[in-house]
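Example with several molecule types.
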Amino acid sequence: MNVSRRAFLSRASLGVALAGAAAVVPGLSAVLKLPAPSTAAPRLPLNAEPLVAHVRDLASGEVSLMVGTDHVVLRDANLAARLYGAVFAPQSKER
Amino acid sequence: MSSHREAPAIAKDPVADSTDLYAFVSPDAPNTVTLIANYIPLEGPDGGPNFFEFGDDVLYAIYIDNDGDARPNVTYRFRFQTKIKNPNTFLYNTGPISAINSASWNRPQFYSVTRVANGAETVLGEHIACPPCNVGPRSTPSYAALAQSAIHNLSGSHGKVFAGQRQEGFYVDLGSIFDLGALRPFQNLHLLPLPAVPGVNGTKHLNVHSIALQVPIADLTRDGSSRFSDAADPKAVIGVWTAAYRRKAIIRGDGDDVESGPWIQVSRLGNPLFNEVIVPMSKKDRWNELPPTSDSTFVQYVQHPELAKLLPVLYPGVFPNLAAATGSRDDLVAILLTGIPSGIISGFQNFTGTTLADMLRLNMAIVPSSSPNILGLVGGDAAGFPNGRRVADDVVTIELRAIAGVTYPLVNPGFTPDGAAGLIYDIQDPATNTPPVSYLSSFPYLNHPESGFDVPS
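Resulting structure tokens for the full complex:
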């Protein structure tokens, strides 16, 4: 597999983020044992409006996503964990 | 007050706070109904430099139910957009605003009107101009002409619209009524007595922002009927309420707020004083979030209103019959939640069915009164509240008297109202039939706003 340096660093960062999150978020380790999300690439709009994500409950993986007046509620523990992980990752200093 | 700052959460969000709702057959155009939804309570006329305006980030709506299920059959939606002509001045106006499109008005506001019926949305108007606030004689000379130019016809013969500042038309002795239920003219009889004095209109010299429509009756009825000859015709009755919405999420900062998600209801109003006086404080915010179809969960507060229990305590010995009454106040349930069925009041009904919902119910078959009584139906004038609501109706006195028991015999013939129940009033004796506010004789009926220069707070 031909992996670019940028892609490699990106995946490495995600790994660090998830590991960091598992260390600081209670119950997250159990969450991370859940199946990985689908990797099918969705069709994305060219001029996307801002997306707001709201992790209502990390333990259940309930995530609210809002774009425009659309609102979907997902139960995706992996996504919830990745979002938390991004916040608690060491490089996430802008708070 | 009617619904001004009536719940803890919306009291902190005045731009989305519905204050009063009116619905009546237009006295000077009886083939139409006038609908007025007021927002932004207690505007001090001298509110510069940032004078009051509708919220660009708020969705305002007026709903019509014409088949009795408390769900909207016709909806009017309003969205506002504010412009800044000169970004380099702090001034609301840089000279006299002599016309509604004056270049001197630095912060004009515009709006769109959308009608939703039968699943179809129709834009009835876009980029419609509001009038400016009434700043004073230098800034807004000839205010009446300015306001007149802000009355616009809607497309497709769907009536006309006005949205802008108006003088507060609702009157109440605000300082007294919330001082432990005191009525100044009768406060010598209060548990904590003071000498009786005339009432005071606490909303005098204040303004409000009105969204007013005057639409053909045929636009509101379930079958397109434009007139009714029989007051008993159920198709003649509509239920009306207003609501305001904000987006579910807002991200502040970075120079420009980002809003996202669906519209969430933050304010609702049908009958005056329902959420204010009937619903307990712990549930008021929740009530504002709910549709009228949820109002059955609040029926116990109508059947056994707290105020009916308080009156005999606050006025010892004045309401002995009310104190002894323990039954369900089904008269209030009818007035507020179902409408009054046929057979209760001769020649009148505004019953929408058994669905319990706080809606302002208007029987459009009742022609406008040539000599209106501000006590409406309890004053023998079936064209007034609670048959819809006209701008001058003394709804505080009407509801005070109803809760005190004057309407209880309609459903409980064995009950005799206390003598005081038919005599109490809030500001001035309604027998004079003279409201303490003046109004216009034509659309939008609510008077021109007080000017900031002439009436400083």
